[in-house]
Amino acid sequence: MRQDNLLYVDKTDKLLELIQNGRRYFLSRSIRFGKSLTLSTLDAMFNGKAALFKGLKAEDLGTEQTKYPSAVLRFDMSVL
Q1: Mind listing the pLDDT tens digit of every residue in the chain (80 residues)?
Q2: Which of 15, 34, 60, 71 has its CA 20 to 30 A from that of 50?
Q3: Model-level pTM greater than 0.85?
Q4: Those residues with Cβ within 8 angstroms of residue 25's Cβ, 6 or more apart along the chain or in another chain
Q5: Is the four-CA dihedral 20, 15, 22, 45 of positive or negative sign?
Q6: 3-state helix, strand, coil in the chain (%, to 5)
C-alpha cells in the first residue's frame, strides 16, 4: 500500500504506547477487528524487521529490536 502511494494510516504509535506502558496484554476482540494484523505487526516489530517500518513511528524500535529479537506468543482458541 505504501509503495503504491495509497492511503495508509500509521497506527504504530499506538502499539508503541502498549509496549512502553505495560508488560503483558491479552488481546480479545470480536471477529474481523484486526487481531491478526495487530499481532503480525507486533511480531515484526519484536523480531527486528526494521525495513517494514521505515518512515513510520515504530522505525526506531524495529531497528533496535534487530539486536535483541523477542518472541510474540499467539494462542489460537478457534480450534478448541
Answers
A1: 677 878 878 888 888 888 888 777 777 767 777 778 888 888 888 888 888 888 888 888 767 777 777 888 877 777 65
A2: 34
A3: no
A4: 18
A5: negative
A6: 45, 0, 55
